[in-house]
Amino acid sequence: MTDSTAIKLDKIILVLIKGVIFLLPLFFLPWTSEYFEFNKQFLLWFTMPIVALLWLLKAVASGQLKIKINPLNLPILIFLFLTAASSIFGLDKFSSFFGHFGIFSDSWLGLLSLVIFYFLIINTKVAESAENIIGLLKIFLYSSAIAAVLSLMAMVIPPKINLAEVFLGHELPKEASLDYNQSWDITKETLKKNPALGSGPGTFSQDFSLFRPVELNSSALWQIRFDKSRSRFLEILATGGLLGFLSYFLIICLGFYLDIVLIRKYLFVRAAGETAYAKGEEHNLVYVLFTVFILIFFSQIFFPTNTVLNFIFWFILALLISFWQRHDKLLFKEKIIDLHKTVLFYRLSILVLFVLSVGVFALLAFEVKFFAADIIAARGANREASLIMAVKLNPYRYNYRISLAKLYLSQAKAESLKPDGQGNNSMIQLNITKAIETGRKAIEMAPSSVLPYETLGMIYRDIRPLTLGSEAWAVKYFNEAFAFEPTNPVLATELAKAYLNNNDLVNAEKYFNRALELKGDYYEAKFSLAKTYLKGKKDSQALILLNELAREVYDPEVYYELGRFYYNHGEIDKAIDRFKLALSLSPKHSNSLYSLAVAYEAKNDFKEALKYYRQALELSPGNKELENKIKELSK
Fold first, then answer.
1. Which residues of the chain have pLDDT under 50?
2. In this structure, are strands 333-338 and 268-271 parallel, antiparallel, or unpaired?
3. At what angle do helices 556-568 and 572-585 cross, to 10 degrees?
4. Phi/psi of residue 448, each to 5°?
5. Among 164, 392, 513, 537, which residue has the fewest nearby CB atoms (within 10 Å)?
6. pLDDT tens figures, 76-132
7. What does the alpha-carbon distance between residue 24 and residue 46 come to, in Å, rounded to a whole number?
8. Residue 588: which of 615, 557, 621, 628 has the closest Cα?
9. What is the pLDDT of residue 622?
10. How far apart are the C-alpha atoms of 328 and 437, rounded to whole Å?
């Protein structure tokens, strides 16, 4: 290879690395389901392997592989290896390698890309001088400044102009986070279960479900499923285990140690009992880099992270090592491997490069498919066809299957709501079958996640009026969902309702009470428990709960149930009073109108009964029972 070719490859590598540094803080696309993290990760996934191949190509063609040796190389490779092992043996291999849907920043592939970025910085001419390092910092600062300006504009521009609406088509969701104590509790419980390797990168959402703090049910955020810890360190400890955390902490400690020792050695020159600074601006540069490194360290203790913050950590670490490589040739050595040593060795290096190239391009093909799948799923005009295509392109992302299963369910329900004679029963059953099969496939893809089980439970719950035998299956899947999230009062309530629909009053009562233990003010559980008591002839307990609810909430259903209770116990006047209270809250509450008419009829007040039967008929035109009743009372 000629010198000019080597120079050209160096220039291409330099442009690509600078391009990534500039683009990463700014990079977003409005076409994917998640606009920022997924696209930033894809930028890293796609560019870093290509740049690494170009670097290896230059080495093979020139016959020399030059590798900078420093004390951080081995700990970084150990950390990379341990997180790979954690991904393989963790709860969700696909999410560990490619990122949890909606977050993506904790993927092992993203970590690999950042480690490649780090090694490229220290092993190329990108940061070979203080001027180059300052140039790279300026590129990143310019890009970050643009991103900051856009963020500030989004906050200060008048409400009528919403930048998120302008660029993305709708507003961004508000962020919420766990507090530090809750994150620590989840981490402790996860370590008890998986102490060595943790649950796997990108699986904190599953850790959260399993060890969700009960006290969260008393907060305004109780219905949120968190997929990030409050602290980067706590998240690494939970998802990477003790081994992953210690290897990562070793990298940081070595970084601090090297900087402190080398700052003392090179930037302070003791002569004649006096302290003097080394000449030039280099000492200012290393102070800036070291200060940023310290800030990133503390931010990882107290705050969650994202792709940009992870990038800054590896970027600053690479610049610090690049800076010191020039000052200490004994500690930071360069190993040169002569690839032309023998013909066999050179051919072997070409073979290795070829195999790596095939592997990289195969990985890039998968990444492009996954990227295309997300765009199609998020932006396809035909929702069903788009999700089917997304599943074909990326069969491992269970979220697409969940969305598709819900779509099939909604189509079945929509068909069933058509007027008599217009609904297609075959279409209803076909969509029900597709919903169930797709939901079960989602479970196969993510057997340790609560979402597929919850979705399948909802499907079996909602098809109950449309098919036979769904109650037992709803019980099964809500039971499994509740096992994955045992402190969620909603799942406890849904499981109890499934038992109630299956006429298992004992277990229905058990899980409604469990829901109320988890969240004492959960209306849905308390009201459903009251109806369970009524069904089980526990009238006194039902009355206590219904009266409690009547004092706590203004819901026509509560007064309606109270009215029914009093009517069934022969207290007609109290029943009428409660039915009227229900109508005062909802004048078109058809059940209360009908029940009020029945109650007046029981008192032989046919005039009032007729009045309410007619009102009920207005809400249900063509109802033969009401028409016959009105005719009977009008004689």
1. 1, 159, 163-164, 167-168, 270-279
2. unpaired
3. 170
4. -110, 10
5. 537
6. 999 999 999 999 999 999 999 999 988 888 899 999 999 999 999 999 989 888 899
7. 12
8. 615
9. 82
10. 63
